[in-house]
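quick one, 151 residues, struct below
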Amino acid sequence: MPRCDCVVITDQEKVVKPMKRFLAVVSMLLPGLMSGCVSNTDLHALQADTSALARQNSAHEQTVEARVQQLRDRVAQFEQSQAETRRDAARVAATLDTLRSQLQSLQGDVEEVQHTVQRSPPGDAAGSTTELADFEARLRDLEQQFSLSSQ
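---
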């Protein structure tokens, strides 16, 4: 029987020695691990700070998003205003071109009538004078329209 007891002790020693080593290592690491732990008070304070920062960040994001939307709206209004201004400028330019064309036509007609009056016999001047007065009246009307539309 003594032989059996030796074997059992040896098996126990094989199990006990690694466990002792493990406990020794854990006992040496435990103080180091404990120093890295945070107290509950510190943890709650850190969580409160993180939560407050998250709320502030959310508020800032909402403020920035609102400001960005306001700027988008203003840009859209500005672009719409620019488009309307361009359309109005195009209409004014078209009207101006039409008035210039009519004015040139009337000036040509006036010159033609003046030329005809200068070459016509003295008795025929009454009809030409009436035509000249009509042309001059039309010319004044166009000049008034031109001055009103350019303002």
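The radius of gyration is 52 Å.
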